[in-house]
Amino acid sequence: MQITSRLSVTNVKVSFPLHISETRSFKNKLGELVRFNIRAKRRYKVALQNINFTLRSGDRLGIIGANGAGKSTLINVLLGIYEPEVGKVIRIGKVAGLIAAGAGMDPERTGYQNIYRRGRQAGLTEKQIDQYLPKILDFADLGTDIDLPVRTYSTGMSARLGFAIITSMSAQIYILDEWIGAGDARFVDKAQERIEAMFDEEHILVLATHVDALIKRWCNIVLVLHEGRQVALTDVPRALDIKNRILREEDVNEVLASHDLPPLPNL
To answer: pTM, whole model, 2 decimals?
Structure first.
């Protein structure tokens, strides 16, 4: 029976600890110099807060925003690398993700060896990887370079191999970070064809990127982030307008009002 995939995020908040050295008195300073012991006062930086959305089969979510908006943090939450401090993430269906062009690969091993390495990491048997191998090799199009160590690859070559691996192996939810823009135009065109083929089968795609053209080509819904907050979850044209106007340092709440969206509190 075909799995109806779902990715649900409810009230997610993520904070990271900051350690600020603090001394208490001259006497304590002397003691700390002797003991080399400085008390650390723990503070926290909120990286994401109140993030909410639900994706179902056929949804292609773009995540956009300025540097530091929280895109990569959210991708790591969706992949289960970070646990939310508050809220929950529900994943129904097998998840395949890549957060960097060479993520999960051993740079000293060949491309060929890394295909099997990534397959085993995904819980596949050698026989299953054998079945996927021709499809991976064809898409990656590395020729004899597949037998060279991955450390010799360009970023674009690593991107092609990584994308070929995760999209050739059976999954229902694909999560990609901004590295996808590292490929050349031919790679992006091939990736587009594969994405479209995947969505004939109604998978879920999540893509974090700075590249508006990729959002326009690949996504049908967009999450706009600003300083860790969810600004909007809307259609592609409106989301791109909101993001680009915020990048031009227009007032966030004025931008939202122009699209009949509620303001963000306490900005």
So the answer is: 0.80
DSSP letters for 112-150: HHHHHHHHHHTT--HHHHHHHHHHHHHHH--GGGGGSBG
Tens digit of each residue's pLDDT (9 = 90 or more) over 81-101: 999 999 999 999 989 887 776
Cβ neighbours of residue 145 closer than 8 Å, sequence gap 6 or more? 111, 152, 153, 157
CB 233 within 8 A of CB 222: yes
For the chain, which domains are there? 1-17+41-93+203-266 (3.40.50.300)
Strand order in the sheet with 95-98: 86-92, 6-21, 40-56, 229-234, 221-226, 60-64, 204-208, 173-176, 95-98
Bridge partners for 116 per DSSP: none
Q: What angle do CA 179, 181, 185 make, to 5 degrees?
A: 140
Would strands 86-92 and 40-56 be described as parallel, antiparallel, or unpaired?
A: unpaired
If 0-12 CB within 10 Å is exposed, 13-18 middle and 19+ buried, where does residue 168 land? buried
Q: Give the DSSP H or E segment for 252.
A: helix 252-258
Confidence band for 20, pLDDT divided at 50, 70 and 90: low
Residue type, 10: T
73 neighbors 253 (Cβ within 8 angstroms): no
Please state, in angstroms and rounded to a whole number, the distance separating the CA atoms of residues 80 and 86: 14
